[in-house]
């Protein structure tokens, strides 16, 4: 690690057709317009960002969100954008938060895919790369996340890459006039290693 950037985290990237390769890079202010454009409604923004970002999303909120992030070895948050390598198209956003270097754990969150690219496996591939960075690059032991129970596509994608359901935070968020449950999930380093070797 050096100069505040992640180094050598992509050397073991799974081989794919060139047109299908996806890379993660740290977010920059030049990405803000994309992220704001994807946040099409208060409900959708809350679905992927939780309560800390509010609709309409603006640059001021995003600058605050980035403050003190993306300093490997120091920050408790690493915030990425997903890029299709062939055309350099920005297609998603994802982050690590609550990075605990003593207990070697972190939380994955703020997962959003450009609506034009949804349903094409981008979310699953973003998550696969986050697992590789978390377990190989950051040497973590445990990664966790939460997803609202109505987001069945996300839950299936997370289970497909090895996350296990741990429990439910009942009626944890209010959408309109209805409370919804949040499904808590996690994966351990040994589970990830076993899934790659099978």
UniProtKB/TrEMBL annotation:
<feature type="domain" description="N-acetyltransferase">
    <location>
        <begin position="22"/>
        <end position="190"/>
    </location>
</feature>
<dbReference type="Pfam" id="PF00583">
    <property type="entry name" value="Acetyltransf_1"/>
</dbReference>
<dbReference type="GO" id="GO:0016747">
    <property type="term" value="F:acyltransferase activity, transferring groups other than amino-acyl groups"/>
</dbReference>
<dbReference type="InterPro" id="IPR000182">
    <property type="entry name" value="GNAT_dom"/>
</dbReference>
<protein>
    <submittedName>
        <fullName>GNAT family N-acetyltransferase</fullName>
    </submittedName>
</protein>
<dbReference type="InterPro" id="IPR016181">
    <property type="entry name" value="Acyl_CoA_acyltransferase"/>
</dbReference>
């Amino acid at each position: 690690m050096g100069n505040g950037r992640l180094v050598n985290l992509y050397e073991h990237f799974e081989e794919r057709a060139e047109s299908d390769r996806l890379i993660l890079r740290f977010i920059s202010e030049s990405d803000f317009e994309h992220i704001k454009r994807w946040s099409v409604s208060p409900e959708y923004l809350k679905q992927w960002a939780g309560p800390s970002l509010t609709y309409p999303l603006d640059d001021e909120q995003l600058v605050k969100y980035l403050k003190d992030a993306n300093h490997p070895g120091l920050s408790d948050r690493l915030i990425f954008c997903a890029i299709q390598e062939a055309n350099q198209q920005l297609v998603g956003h994802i982050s690590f938060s609550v990075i605990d270097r003593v207990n070697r754990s972190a939380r994955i969150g703020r997962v959003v895919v450009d609506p034009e690219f949804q349903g094409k496996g981008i979310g699953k591939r973003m998550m696969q790369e986050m697992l590789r960075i978390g377990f190989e690059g950051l040497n973590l032991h445990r990664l966790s996340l939460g997803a609202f129970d109505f987001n069945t596509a996300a839950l299936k994608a997370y289970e497909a890459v090895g996350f296990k359901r741990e429990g439910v935070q009942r009626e944890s968020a209010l959408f309109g006039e209805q409370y919804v449950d949040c499904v808590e999930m996690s994966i351990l380093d040994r589970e990830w290693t076993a899934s790659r070797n099978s």
